[in-house]
Amino acid sequence: MNIDELKNTWNEDIENETPEINIEQRNKINLPIEKVRKNMRMEFWWIVGIFIFAFMVCSVCKPFKLQLYITVLIASMLLVTVFFYSKFFKLYHDISNTELKTSDSLRELVTQLNLNKQYYLSYYISFAPFIVCEILIVLEFIPWPQPMGEVKIAVILIGSLIIGMFLLFLCGKFWFHRYYGRYINHIESLLQEFKK
């Protein structure tokens, strides 16, 4: 076998392994990708607005100790948010520049979307310590008509934490599915269709 035949065989094998995506299939894929990008932009601006509002509320809190605690807590939440949003921006940039010409590129896109799904769920879980801190601050600074006992404080803290974590989990799952999950599922189904 000469070199030319070997090159031709090699090129045929590569072409057989990575079939190209036609224009109609690309258009079907681009619609959910554009929806994901639009929802990422919308969520980013919502988060910016929420943090601006939170810092404005901090500026009017009294006494100074309460203002300091809340400001430090919100600044810590902002740092966590910046870390996770740097990951989301990377995905946003990657899906903006994705050339979906082969099934391998589509498979890579689905892998990136699923990885960011894990980041997204981790983002929500990372707010558990902040819930605990918020409850402690509320318990410490709200003026109660009569002093609370240790058992009552423990019950309020644990009950609030359980309810808060459950609500955080439900809100995170709902938000992700509504704004991202269904589009990721659509892209995955297109990938399965493409494999047939």
Care to give the gist of this entry?
Keywords: Membrane, Transmembrane, Transmembrane helix. The protein is mainly alpha-helical. It is 86% helix and 0% strand.
Question: Key features?
Answer:
membrane, mainly alpha, 196 residues, transmembrane, transmembrane helix
Q: If you had to describe this structure to a student in words, what would you say it looks like?
A:
This protein has helices spanning 3-17, 23-59, 64-96, 103-125, 128-141, 150-195. It is mainly alpha-helical and 196 residues long. The protein has one domain (21-195). It is elongated.
Taken together, the total number of domains comes to 1
The main β sheet shows up as: none
What's the alpha carbon Rg, rounded to whole Å? 24 Å
The gross shape turns out to be elongated
**Uncertain spans, ≥5 residues at pLDDT below 50?**
none
N-to-C order of helices and strands: HHHHHH
Structural class of the secondary structure composition?
mainly alpha
Provide a count of the helices. 6
- Estimate the strand proportion: under 5%
> What's the helical proportion of residues?
over 70%
Through-space gap between termini:
34 Å
Mean pLDDT: 80
Q: What's the number of extended β-strand segments? A: 0
Transmembrane segments: 44-61, 68-86, 121-142, 154-176
Keywords: Membrane, Transmembrane, Transmembrane helix
Question: How would you summarize the topology of this molecule?
Answer:
Blueprint: H1 3-17, H2 23-59, H3 64-96, H4 103-125, H5 128-141, H6 150-195
